[in-house]
Amino acid sequence: MSGNEQKYINEAFETNWIAPLGPHVDLFEKEIARFLGVNDAVAVSSGTAAIHLALSLLDVKKGDKVFCSTLTFVASANPILYQGAEPIFIDSDPESWNMSPQALEKAFKNALLEGKMPKAVIVVNLYGQSAKMDEIVSLCNQYDVPIIEDAAESLGTTYKSKPSGSFGKYGIFSFNGNKIITTSGGGMLVSNDVEAIHRARFLAAQAKDPAPYYQHSKLGYNYRLSNILAGVGRAQLEILEERVRKRREIFETYYEELGNIPGLFFMKELENTRSNRWLTVLTLDERLSGIPVTVLMKILEEENIEARLVWKPLHLQPLFEGAKYYPHEADSISEQLFNTGICLPSGSNMSEKSQDRVIDCIKKSLNL
Ligand SMILES: Cc1ncc(COP(=O)(O)O)c(C=O)c1O
Questions:
Q1: Strand 65-69 vs strand 120-124: parallel, antiparallel, or unpaired?
Q2: Distance of alpha carbon 332 from alpha carbon 321, whole angstroms
Q3: Quick one: how far is CA 132 from the chain centroid?
Q4: 20 to 30 Å CA-CA from 110: which of 149, 244, 325, 353?
């Protein structure tokens, strides 16, 4: 926390706005929209809820297909199942690690042949890195399919100077406890379509008809963000840039200390982009490093250092067994990244001393 959170929480208490609506909610939405340069935003209880609302707004339902990045957290695709639709997974691009435009094109061509286009494409910006948005937007425009940009991990990132999360028909963010800024739990759905966000606000508040009594014609959800948490979010947004700077510094230190070790490859930053470096991630080539990533994980764990393997691709998850998958080429990039990738401790409050300890431990485990 930065300090102002408590002030805004106190304001909520003093004015008795202890509800999933109120002045902080309104201001948080406006401030996020302004920051991103989009027309409107709706604050919700989680990033997952924001994706679910986006799919509802696009009328995704049973029998529909939705394309989704495979290398991501399960929350990117769960709402597809909530809607009874079918997820089709798209491999990663070797440079960005995010959705491969090449695999996406294959998937579109095949969908056209089958006569069933997807209702939406969920593009994820992993670990703070933007996907190749020019290529992806151009393909989606060509096939006339809307994009939901899952920017849960990429608030503060830019692609060609444009904020991450502002490229699709809808963008979504997460303010879960582990994200670059947090409300403990929360999310945001953004769009240039003010009418659609208005509708999202209606759906997120149980879809109550404008009648003098409780009348409901549509299926709604209880997805609004608390006014107290929105206060926390407002204070966090004030220090976002500081957090991005800190995460980038953490990356730089890891890179300076470990970047020259044979077999270690850090996630690159795409040209003309600025990643928020939410997590510092690297891959290990066992033939050069001498140990597989799972052994490195174990050694770190024994030293009480919490690292994580890269997301297990969704097309390999038992939950999505049988789902269609489009690899980048013959080789599946996401599977390679999963088999060799590790996320290093990257918290904004990480001290120099703790980072040195992680670096020393990695060097030792590689016999350096
Ligand atoms: C890529 C991605 N998408 C979606 C989500 C879902 O966000 P939330 O946890 O706020 O529901 C997360 C994080 O949890 C995420 O990392």
A1: parallel
A2: 17
A3: 15
A4: 149
Which pLDDT tens digit goes with each residue over 73-99? 999 999 999 999 999 999 999 999 999
Residue 357 lies in domain: 241-365
* Predicted confidence (pLDDT) per residue in 273-317, tens digit: 999 999 999 999 999 999 999 999 999 999 999 999 999 999 999
How many domains are there within the chain? 2
From ligand 1's centre to the CA of 59, what distance in Å?
21
Q: Which residues are catalytic?
A: 179
φ/ψ bin of 181: left (φ > 0), alpha (ψ from -120 to 50), beta (otherwise): beta
- Among the three residues 191, 214, 239, which one is the final residue of a domain in this structure? 239
Residues 228 and 288 in one domain: no
Shared domain for 167 and 258, answered yes or no, is: no
Tens-place pLDDT, residues 341-360:
999 999 999 999 999 999 99
Does 186 lie in the same domain as 109? yes
Q: Which residues pair with 1 in a beta bridge?
A: none
Check whether residue 193 and residue 331 sit in a common domain: no
Average pLDDT of the segment spanning 109-127: 98
Do 231 and 118 belong together in one domain?
yes
Say if CB 25 and CB 232 are below 8 A apart.
Answer: no
User: What pLDDT band is residue 124 in, cutting at 50, 70 and 90?
Assistant: very high
How much distance in Å is there from the Cα of 184 to the middle of ligand 1? 12
User: Which of these, 248, 360, 221, lies nearest to 303 by C-alpha position?
Assistant: 360
Q: Which of 205, 239, 273 is the last residue of a domain?
A: 239
How confident is the model over 125-144, as a mean pLDDT?
98
Mutate to test the pocket of ligand 1, among 153, 180, 278, 312 (most ligand atoms within 8 A of CB): 153
| CB of residue 150 inside a 6 A radius of ligand 1 | yes
Q: Is residue 334's pLDDT more than 90?
A: yes
Name the residue of 89, 176, 178, 179 whose CB sits within 8 Å of the most ligand 1 atoms, as the mutation to test its pocket. 176
* pLDDT score of 3: 87
